[in-house]
Design goal:
Elements (H helix, E strand, L loop, with lengths): L1 H10 L7 H14 L5 H6 L1 E5 L12 H6 L22 H49 L9 H24 L13 H26 L6 H28 L6 E7 L5 E6 L4 H15 L9 H12 L12 H14 L3 H41 L10 H22 L8 H13 L4 H9 L17 E5 L12 E5 L4 E8 L28
Antiparallel strand pairs: 1-4, 2-3, 2-6, 4-5, 5-6
Helix pairs in contact: 1-13, 5-7, 5-8, 6-8, 7-8, 12-13, 12-15, 13-14
């Protein structure tokens, strides 16, 4: 109870929503939005990639309200009402409605594709069985006896259909990771090929067997076996086209985040642009550090303060552009000492980060030492009085809360870590007997996006912008952009060069030498 009271007293009055922080966040987000030009829209093709609604990769819209939250963790919330300073135009309404229509269209397209594939799969699976059963049902008395040969063929068809069923389930029936804007060309071609193949077999079966009521039942069974064999070969072709073809690296892509310039390199095989975009996004959530717009505000405020000192006066009232540019250049030269300000600001920030990091490390180590003491005391207690990890985390959290909060504020990570998430992580570390260093790893170094809660992510829907068709394959020099609300990923494709490797033969005898010793001595 005392630990809970300490926690409550430590965090009383911490979280408040302020109108200024919300306004600053909305203005910062609006500055990231680039205006769309009419000329650029004609030369570029823009398509949208969405995550499945059943498993959304990204948080809901309520997380936007939490982004403007105060640095503190919340127990109380103050709501501020007033006149809205922002308006929405007809273009925004039209864009929102278009996004809704696109999302509905993507859902319908996905379910339609799954339905077509399921119906075609059932048709393929039951066609050989129908070929064998129809003569037995329609003209059984006229069939020639088959005997042991047909029974062996029956066993062969059964096992081949089982193998085909398992292979089809493993290759095609997977949970989709994302919605792509266009159809997958190879998969569509395989579906068309299977449909034409099964249709041609049914056509031949109807003309040559059903119409004439063929009495050679062994030939009919062998005809069904040939269909199953051909379907197995088509399945092998699907494995080559869908899985094996893209394994060999052929291209190197450089992915650059537009806001902070963080970049990564990846090797890709023969993929279309839309599938390459999916691979880039999957690696982005795993490899890139989480996007933190708060880290960009310092440089922007410094640039704004520098530009605020440049004052240009027009005395004559005319547009003396040359004189204005000269005055701006002179003022810029006078303010050339801004690099000193940047140097001292960064040095002071690093000093404060190191100082608060040291305080945090000491506070966490003391808290974990207290946990060990509590565990030693609990071993002597009755089983009913033992404290669970959640209660232990709540007991030691107030001793480290202030140091952790100051460190997160200094490093501008407070919007990614709530008090509840920290308590859960602390109880997890206590349960698994982890060290203080393992507990601090999440907070001392910014991790990838997947490490944080989904409601803390800054991207929900991605838009693929490419001058080439998104179904076309990767080529050397292609550049496409993946845009979300606050930033974009610029992807530059380069082909891996052809490497010429030659061989040089070295004669083993060339390494041998003879050491001749002379027995001459000095007199």
């Amino acid at each position: 109870m005392s630990a809970a009271m300490d926690t409550e007293s430590t965090y009383s009055g911490y979280s408040h929503y302020s109108g200024h922080s919300k306004k600053a966040h909305r203005q910062g987000r609006d500055r990231h939005k680039s205006p769309r030009s009419k000329d650029g829209s004609r030369s570029e093709k823009s398509v949208t990639i969405q995550t499945p609604p059943a498993e959304p990769l990204l948080g809901n819209d309520a997380s936007r309200a939490e982004e403007g939250q105060d640095d503190n963790w919340g127990e109380t919330t103050t709501a501020i009402t007033g006149t809205s300073e922002h308006s929405i135009s007809q273009e925004d309404i039209a864009r929102i409605s278009k996004d809704l229509e696109d999302s509905v269209g993507l859902d319908c397209k996905r379910y339609l594709g799954l339905t077509v594939a399921a119906v075609l799969g059932l048709l393929v699976f039951f066609t050989p069985i129908a070929f064998i059963l129809l003569p037995q049902i329609l003209w059984r008395d006229d069939l020639e006896p088959c005997g042991t040969v047909c029974e062996g063929l029956f066993i062969s068809v059964a096992f081949k259909l089982l193998i085909l069923l398992i292979g089809t389930w493993a290759l095609f029936f997977r949970q989709p990771k994302a919605d792509i804007p266009r159809v997958f060309v190879f998969r569509a071609l395989l579906l068309v090929l299977i449909f034409l193949f099964v249709f041609s077999y049914w056509l031949f079966y109807g003309v040559r067997i059903l119409d004439s009521k063929d009495t050679n039942y062994q030939g009919i069974v062998q005809y069904a076996v040939s269909l199953v064999d051909a379907l197995l070969f088509i399945h092998y072709l699907a494995i080559v086209l869908l899985e094996l073809r893209q394994l060999q690296p052929m291209f190197t892509v450089k992915v650059v985040r537009s806001t902070d310039g963080e970049s990564r390199y990846y090797s890709l095989g023969h993929l279309s642009i839309q599938r390459a975009a999916l691979v880039v996004l999957e690696n982005y959530y795993r490899d890139f550090t989480v996007y933190n717009p708060a880290l960009l505000t310092a440089s922007k405020s410094r640039a704004a303060k520098h530009m605020a000192g440049l004052k240009v006066y027009n005395v004559d009232g005319n547009n003396a552009s040359g004189q204005s540019r000269a005055m701006i250049a002179a003022a810029a030269r006078r303010r050339d000492s801004s690099h000193n300000e940047l140097y001292y600001e960064e040095a002071d920030h690093e000093r404060r980060v190191k100082k608060r990091r040291a305080r945090l490390v000491v506070a966490v180590e003391e808290a974990f030492t207290h946990i060990k003491q509590l565990q030693a005391e609990e071993q002597q207690k009755a089983p009913g009085e033992i404290m669970d990890p959640r209660e232990a985390a709540q007991a030691i959290f107030p001793s480290m809360a202030r140091a952790l909060q100051k460190y997160l504020r200094t490093t501008r990570q407070q919007q990614y870590h709530s008090m509840e998430s920290i308590l859960q992580h602390l109880s997890f570390c206590i349960t698994n007997n982890m060290t203080p260093k393992a507990f601090l790893e999440r907070y001392l170094n910014p991790g990838p996006t997947l490490q944080y809660d989904r409601d803390r992510w800054f991207s929900k829907q991605w838009t693929l912008v490419s001058e080439e068709a998104v179904t076309s394959g990767l080529q050397d020099g292609i550049v496409f952009v993946l845009k979300c609300l606050d930033f974009s990923l610029v992807v530059n494709v380069k082909k891996i060069p052809f490497i010429k490797l030659s061989e040089e033969f070295i004669d083993p005898k060339s390494h041998k030498f003879v050491l001749r010793l002379q027995s001459e001595t000095s007199v």
